[in-house]
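tmp note - Porin
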Amino acid sequence: MKVVKSLLLGTAAGLIAVGGAQAADLPVKAKAVEYVKICSLYGAGFYYIPGTDTCIKLGGYLRAEVALNAGGNYSAQYNGVFAANNRLNNYYSLRAREDLNIDTRSATEYGVVRTYFDAVFTWTTGNYVGTGSGTGATQYSSTLGLNAAGTGLVGSGGGSVNGTDGAISGGSLGVYYAFIQFAGFTLGKAVSQFDAPWINYPGNNFDQLVGGSGTTNGVPQATYTADFGQGVSGTISVQDQTQIFQTNLWNVAGMSTTGVLGGAYGSSDFGGTRAPDIVGNIRVDQAWGLFQASVAAHDNHVGYYGATETTGHPEDKWGWAVQLALSIKNIPTGAGDVINVQGVYTEGASRYNFQELTATSYSMFGSSNAAYQSIGFAGVSDAVFAPGGSLELTKTYGFRGAYTHNWNPYWNTGLYGAWAAVNYSGTAKGLICGSAAFATLTGTCNPDFNIGQVGVITRWTPVKNLTFSADFTYSHLDQKYSGTITTPALTSVGKPAATYELKDQDTYSMLLRAQRNW
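out:
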């Protein structure tokens, strides 16, 4: 038995040894590779790009909305067929939009290197726009492209970048921001350094608030920001003026009665750019809120008095703007409640008051007991001039603000308002009112005007990052003309040759929106 036991144990030991040797020859299962690694250096949502030390964050939103009694996408009925108050304007306008943003950051010996890109894909209900060549029932077409009457259905606002916004399967692509930040520098397309942190939206969704600068779509710039510590910073920037920070340089030689009633006091006579806008700000960020003071200088450069260079030209004049902005947080009315306010003054730089999405021409029709109908018209410019004369800079000032109250974690309401004034110099008024375009005016000629806006918005967020909102806005145009004016037919808005009463005008609109952030 002792011999058998020894044989059995020896055999088992041999089998174990052989099995161990064979197991050593087999491939060992590798440890799982961590392809997506969280990057905690820059806040939630960042991940390391595999194989690099660069962190990336993807974000955006999907939005569906309908604007009622508005000017295309969410703006007011200030001009064109939207303000004609007849059968040519849409009672509603729909929009669907997807936003995509990409944020990358890397730590270096010079600090964080950041790139940021934000683009939108949009489809918007088309708007009927006439050329004035059509008559009768064929004046406006409901098909994309021009018909025999020379009219067509086009994308609202300036959104039809690729020419198909409003088409059945079309849309538009827009690039909001694309910039690099490195060692205090910002290079590329970003929010203007003149803007308040809330840009155009102190508490609203409405796009056309006056009373301050706002570059929702970004502006090309080269900027340096110095951090002084304790929440205090200072910025100096040069930015492109051509797309966003020009209104009109009116040559009154191009005035006509039909043009004036459309809110244009002549032909806008821009020359090529000679200098970018120069912007600076001082900003204080604290637990209680924020304060920012901004200044800007803007070069006004005209082409020629007439059609050729031999007609001469006025000399350039620099305009300027100054803005103060204040945000107060943690106010006693409730957790998360906030007040945002700002005020601005400009001279020869009106876009820093009438921001990029705000109308610079107003032509609003209403009822009248003294004439065929009433009209309120006005226009915004940087300067006015006549052949042989110099630039007369236009002055503006205004403010806007909002108070937002959180009823509970799911509901909040914002009350907001804005007001702006446009004042022309005595010389500019003489040039405008002395034109033959006002030959049929029976009352007072004064191109100065004010515009006021007030609104309320309520938001419901039933689950995180999904918000439904309703935003109602009322606007009042306070124009300074009086009496009546007789005009030829205004065919682009379907108005006949008639006598119109000059009168203040009112309008209102509403936006219903659903938005899912991700």
